[in-house]
Amino acid sequence: MEKFVINGGRKLKGSVKVDSAKNAVLPMIAAAVLTEEETVIKNCPPIGDVVKMTEILRSCGAKTAFCDGNLIINARDISINSVSEKLCGSLRTSVLMLGALAGRTGGAAVYRPGGCNIGKRPVDIHLYALKTLGSSVYDESDRIICCGKPSGGDVYLDFPSVGATENALLASVTAKGVSRIFNPAKEPEIEDFVGFLNAMGAKVYGAGSSCIRVEGVKRLHGAEYTPIGDRIEAGTYLIASAITGGEIAVEGVNAENISSLTGKLCDNSCQISVGNGIIYQKSIRERKAFDTETGPYPSFPTDLQAQITSLAAVSEGTSVIRENVFETRFGHVSELVKMGADIAVDGRTETVRGVKKLYGAVVSAKDLRCGAAMVIAGLAAEGQTIVLGAHHVERGYYGMHKKLAELGADIRGV
Ligand code: UD1
């Protein structure tokens, strides 16, 4: 899709169900390479990044198919352990093929990964982890080569990188020895990924704590697994409703996983309650400024920073939002300013002076979450907003415009 056309001003009302979490599904697809048997990832949305990851697997010899909302992978015939520059450049999680292919075949070669343009995004921690787990790693200017089956070891991550934790897990689950990953990422998607690995017969303990222990096993087997719901998708709809003064119910996500967001929504304008696995949001007062800063889980997620900036833009008072994870994740700011927002960025900090109204404009989705933020702003703006670059949004949200339209928004995808 090319763009979203939004006529703002409608309050959202109704209920919406989220899909499986993108950031849990992507490493699971990489992990499917570790077994010769079939794996099934249930309720798997065919969003852009997931489709790209399946293309990577197919380029290595695996078979993949979407069937009745599930993704079926058979990696019995893996015959190639390198990934093309074009495929690696299309998404960040292509780098997970290092750990996955090294675990399966004893070697792997990838090009530097692409993905959202939100900062430098080096892979040094990934490579350190793979080396420490016993593979030889050659970091050439554009290509990374990993030789030798990982044997296991103790890995201390300087930063709890989500991707590096996943690569270390992929490399260690079929290593000969025992591995420990200190200071791993604690995101709920990591715990869920470990749930998937264990369903494949891995022996991984301590996910969610400050040390993950992996007892290497000889072989992994096939598995059928339902990932957790997407907390970022859920958070995006909750913010969208709050900005329109709406009232919605969000189904399919564990509320605890986004308590850092729901707390801010309560400070801002909402009443939030939870029952039977459903999050109920109700706008109960005028929107008020709030402060927040992003960080590794359980801190406020960087993947909701752009969206909550849209909310701050129309909240009375001055909000201060600090981005601690990705140094240049501010692509949404210039676009919100085109709609009448008053935002200044200094280093990693946005100062957002709330305005009474945003006005419809032609804006660009510069990256995935920037696109979501622009859609949210468009829902509240006076007049028509056109969000260009809708394909960025489709990388991470399945049918976002349809779900919002079902909640009463005037939005269409073109
Ligand atoms: C994952 C998520 C992404 C989310 C991010 C942070 C997926 C597919 N993507 O990305 O949506 O925004 O976590 O929650 O799960 N870093 C290094 N060296 C490394 C690795 C990371 O310096 O080797 C830095 C990054 O530049 C960044 C920070 O660590 O500043 C966080 O990155 P990381 O946790 O690795 O994020 P991703 O796995 O890329």
- The share of residues in helices is 25-40%
Named at the architecture level, the CATH assignment of the largest domain is: Alpha-beta prism
Major sheet details: 4 strands, mixed
Number of beta strands: 23
- In terms of per-residue confidence, which ranges show pLDDT below 50 for 5 or more consecutive residues? none
**Helix/strand-derived class?**
alpha+beta
**CATH fold label of the largest domain:** UDP-n-acetylglucosamine1-carboxyvinyl-transferase, Chain
Report strand order across the widest sheet: 21-22-1-23
| Beta strand % | 15-25%
Q: CATH-wise, what's the superfamily of the largest domain?
A: Enolpyruvate transferase domain
- Specify the number of helices: 14
Mean pLDDT: 97
Question: What's the shape?
Answer: elongated
CA gyration radius, whole angstroms: 21 Å
Distinct ligands:
uridine-diphosphate-N-acetylglucosamine
In whole angstroms, the N-to-C terminal distance is 6 Å
Tell me the quaternary state: single chain
How many structural domains? 2
What is the C-level CATH assignment of the largest domain?
Alpha Beta
